[in-house]
Amino acid sequence: MSESTLVADVFLTPPIPVETGIPGVSSIWSPMTSTLISGARDAVLVDAFLTEDQARDLGDWIEASGKNLTTIYLTHGHGDHFFGMTPLLKRFPGARAVATPGTIAHMRQELEPEFFQAFWGARFPGQIPGDLQVAEPLTGGVIDLEGHELRAVEAGHSDTYDTTFLHVPAIDLVVAGDIVYNGVHQFLAETDKSKRRQWITAIDQIEALHPTRVVAGHKASGAEDSPAAMAATRAYLTDFDHFLETTSGPAELIDAMLERYPDHVNPNALKLSVRTIFARQTAQLPS
User: Fold this and answer.
1) Alpha carbon distance 97, 152 (integer Å)
2) DSSP string computed for 20-58
């Protein structure tokens, strides 16, 4: 039984520009969170951002906390959640980075040279840290923080495959990764109707734990880490499927979602998702 009390602080990056390769066309990458869970002496970081600059700012924030960083936990394998891990490990050599086997396999796929350059390198030229590495396996699914258990929970498909969340029972906290969004358009490009249902099941898993605080992987500035974000994420998925069935095509679907969610950050994420989903559907049509 630990006598220390845990606290959790959230670092939010602002949106950053994305290179589109199209003159006159601009885009942004959605704001991201990283969560520092601290005891009296030690701390565990959840997710590590994308660019060299983001990792530097995150490292400054961790250093200013005065805590000893022991562990970095990665919720899933998307590069915007783990590329910053490598410079952080160099800056905090006493820390280790851990993830589930499914997340580690996904990380390796993100780092395959052809995909990495076509997706990440093209969008963020000269900004991504070098010598990228993957995490090591988390043994037993539990991180010990001064006698408190931080439990990694596998949740299947959300905005990508093999996603997880971190449950901290001592403070009724869930760090949800990209299972939960908060005031930001959701990335749906890796989903179909079946996978969106799986995403809702992942939200249900978190909701069943009755957390009092839920940190979304992408959230708007000023948004509270409220459990209400779970219902809002579920509603977005349900609305998308409704409009997908009742609108006449991509443009009308996008307009319907923008009308329903006028204040959500980064409509470009919605537009990319819709284009990808319709392109995939077209490719599957018989010739």
Assistant:
1) 13
2) -SSTT--EEEPP-EEEEEE-SSEEEEE---SSHHHHHHH
Q: Is the pLDDT of residue 1 over 60?
A: no
Long-range contacts of 164-171 (CB under 8 A, 24+ apart): 164/75, 164/76, 164/99, 164/100, 164/102, 164/103, 165/75, 165/202, 165/205, 165/206, 166/46, 166/73, 166/75, 167/209, 167/211, 168/6, 168/8, 168/37, 170/2, 170/6, 171/6, 171/7, 171/8, 171/213
How many CB atoms are closer than 10 A to CB 30? 26
Q: Please check whether residue 167 is in contact with residue 211, taking contact to mean a CB–CB distance below 8 angstroms.
A: yes
For residues 96 and 136, the answer to whether their CB atoms sit within 8 Å is yes
pLDDT (tens digit per residue) in 18-65? 998 888 878 999 999 999 999 999 999 999 999 999 999 999 999 999
49 and 55 in contact (C-beta within 8 Å)? yes
End-to-end CA distance of the chain: 64
> What's the rounded Cα separation, in Å, for the pair 239 and 4?
43
pLDDT per position as a tens digit, 175-197: 999 999 999 999 999 999 999 99
Cβ density class 86-120: b for 16+ within 10 Å, e for less: bbbbebbeebbbbbbebbbebbeebbeeeebeeeb
pLDDT, mean of residues 255-260: 98
φ, ψ of residue 202 to 5 degrees: the values are -65, -40
> In this structure, are residues 122 and 19 in contact, taking their beta carbons and an 8 Å threshold?
yes
pTM score above 0.85? yes
